[in-house]
Design goal:
Elements (H helix, E strand, L loop, with lengths): L6 H11 L1 H7 L11 E8 L3 E9 L4 E5 L10 E2 L7 E2 L1 H20 L3 H5 L1
Antiparallel strand pairs: 1-2, 2-3, 4-5
Length: 116
């Protein structure tokens, strides 16, 4: 059986070593045409960190990525209910993304937003 994949020991280092694959993740954002920006563990205003950012600087479009661990219960946890429940790890990662959206929108009209 395969061991769990830990974010900081396996997932993030794998993508840091494979920059072309990391840039390819940005293809999920249809607005990105030219992949000319790539950053790992990118600081968002000192409050949050995105594991990966892929961008098209000429068009001003960016894809922010949050990696998480990969284990048996990373996405769903086992319950006695007919429908599955999100795992705490998944909910944590998802809430981080919601926080990014809030922070980016809050900072949109600032000089700092244009700088980063």
């Amino acid at each position: 059986m395969q061991d769990d994949l830990h974010e900081n020991r396996a997932v993030l280092p794998f993508f840091q070593k494979n920059k072309h694959l990391s840039a390819f993740i940005g293809s999920h954002a249809a607005q990105i045409v030219q992949y000319d920006r790539l950053a790992f563990e990118y600081d968002l205003f000192g409050d949050f960190t995105a594991d990966l950012v892929v961008g098209d600087s000429s068009r001003g479009h960016y894809c922010f990525v949050e990696f998480e661990d990969a284990s048996k219960n990373s996405v769903f946890r086992q319950t006695n209910r007919a429908s599955s429940e999100w795992s705490p790890r998944f909910e944590h990662g998802f809430s981080q993304i919601i926080d990014w959206f809030w922070k980016l929108e809050d900072m949109r009209q600032t000089t700092k937003f244009r700088e980063i």
